[in-house]
Write a structure and sequence with these properties.
7-stranded parallel sheet, 39% helix, 13 helices, 358 residues, alpha/beta
Length: 358
């Protein structure tokens, strides 16, 4: 075993990668040798290899774990088994002293392999209810950290604890002047930023287009529409700018924004909470997800941190009405957000994580 080596895993969505992305620089600064185990075609590969080109990335087979009937349910267990064998070979070769998993289907073979190799595994669960992958992985983990206190009731009490939100410090380094240069907007004008998640959100995009003339009369609109979703006909439209996706530009765009329209992935909404941005939350519907975003959104609305508009109720009229409601409640929402618990930094989380090393 190499006490200086740590394996990271997690993928499938940006939310299953962002914490890993945030703690990698902290671990490298402390002198740790890192390896990332992910899928061959998941978003985690593009994020990690682009952000950290020198970090060893090793792809394994993984099968999707489903709560519903699918013919693939018969073949995917064999993919998980093969992925476990691949992960076992990697772990035996690099001999890590700790494995950290952020969840997603690709993490399951890694966590199982770690248990067989007697390597401690620490998991982080962002949502109120654990995803199926983390539910399975929790049986093999040494410890599970959660963002929400409510999540603890779904996990073994003896090895789970709530740590709160972990926020990237760079989000607080936004610069209004850079934002003005990126957008052509004026910082003193009210601005709405729309974020549909790492893949974009067709229904949110549609609502923006349907209401764009009305919205741009009152607000500057920054629209993160998702890869391949740019509408060339709207290029140059006053008070509107669209990006497929952004990376280092995000802190600056958030700095100039007064309101956020977003899905309700836990990582993102806690970041907006830390930045004191009133949110209109349009969670993925129960038909398109396991319902975790609905729970996250309702929790935030009950805390007074934002307003929820369920996708099933999303119409041209309800969208505009919800934005008006959000704008009118701006001061009240920000006051509630100011009273929320302070988030942890990746550096603080790394110190806690390293205490679980073998």
């Amino acid at each position: 075993m190499n006490n200086n080596t740590i394996v990271l895993t997690g993928g499938g969505t940006a939310g299953h990668v962002s914490l890993n992305e945030a703690i990698i620089p902290e671990l490298i600064e402390k002198g740790y040798e890192l390896h990332y185990i992910g899928s061959s075609d998941g978003i985690e590969k593009s994020i990690i290899t682009k952000s950290f080109p020198s970090l060893p990335y090793q792809a394994i087979s993984n099968g999707k774990l489903r709560r519903y009937f699918s013919i693939k349910n018969f073949s995917d267990p064999f993919k998980v088994l093969y992925g476990t064998l691949q992960a076992t070979r990697i772990i035996k070769k690099v001999k890590p002293s700790l494995i950290f998993s952020k969840g997603g289907f690709v993490s399951v073979p890694v966590v199982i392999a770690a248990k067989f190799a007697n390597i401690p595994v620490v998991i982080h669960e962002s949502d109120i209810t654990p995803g199926l992958a983390n539910k399975i992985a929790s049986s093999f983990a040494k410890h599970i950290f959660t963002t929400f206190e409510e999540t603890l009731k779904y996990l073994p009490a003896e090895k789970a604890s709530s740590i709160g939100a972990i926020i990237r410090p760079d989000l607080f380094n936004g610069n209004e002047l850079i934002a003005e240069q990126l957008t052509g907007f004026k910082a003193y004008k009210e601005t709405i930023i729309i974020m549909g998640g790492s893949q974009g959100a067709a229904k949110i995009n549609e609502a923006i287009y349907d209401n764009l003339d009305e919205l741009t009369k009152k607000y500057q609109i920054i629209h993160l529409c998702g890869k391949g979703n740019l509408n060339a006909l709207l290029t140059g439209k006053p008070n509107y700018i669209a990006f497929e996706y952004v990376t280092t530009e995000l802190p600056h765009l958030l700095k100039i924004s007064d309101y956020v329209i977003t899905r309700a992935g836990s990582n993102s909404i806690f970041e907006f909470l830390a930045l004191k941005k009133p949110m209109l939350l349009i969670p993925l519907s129960i038909h398109a997800s396991r319902g975790d975003q609905l729970l996250n959104a309702n929790y935030f609305e009950n805390q007074g941190f934002g307003i929820v508009l369920e996708e099933e109720h999303l119409t041209q009229q309800s969208f505009l009405e919800s934005i008006t409601k959000l704008v009118n409640a701006k001061e009240t929402i920000i006051n509630k957000q100011k009273a929320a618990n302070s988030p942890k930094t990746p550096s603080q989380f790394v110190e806690i994580l390293l205490s679980h090393k073998k």
